[in-house]
Design a protein that fits this description.
Helix content: over 70%
Radius of gyration: 18 Å
C-alpha cells in the first residue's frame, strides 16, 4: 500500500477498525457471534419478511434517512485526522 505524507493508509485502517468495533457491538446485541449465527438467523426469516425489510431499507435510503457510506467514511477520516494532530502536539 502506498502512503502519502498524512499516512492515509493508516487512517483508512483505523477507520475500518472503528467500523468493525461498532459493528461488533451491534452484532453482540443481536446475539450474532459467528457466521453460523447469521445463517441461522437468515433461515428463520421467511422470504416475505426479508423482502419487506429490504424494501423498507431502500425506502429509508430514498427518503434520506441514512448516511451515505462515503460521507460516513469522510467523517471518520476527519475524526481520525483530528486525533492524529492532537497526538502530534
Amino acid at each position: 500500500m502506498k502512503t502519502d505524507n498524512f499516512g492515509s493508509d493508516n487512517i483508512a485502517i483505523q477507520a475500518m477498525q472503528n467500523l468493525q468495533d461498532g459493528m461488533s457491538g451491534a452484532a453482540k446485541e443481536a446475539g450474532i457471534n459467528s457466521e453460523d449465527d447469521v445463517m441461522d438467523m437468515l433461515s428463520e426469516i421467511d422470504r416475505e419478511e426479508l423482502y419487506a425489510k429490504l424494501k423498507q431499507g431502500l425506502e429509508d435510503v430514498e427518503q434520506g434517512k441514512t448516511t451515505p457510506l462515503s460521507e460516513a467514511l469522510d467523517e471518520i477520516k476527519e475524526m481520525l485526522e483530528k486525533r492524529r494532530k492532537e497526538i502530534e502536539k
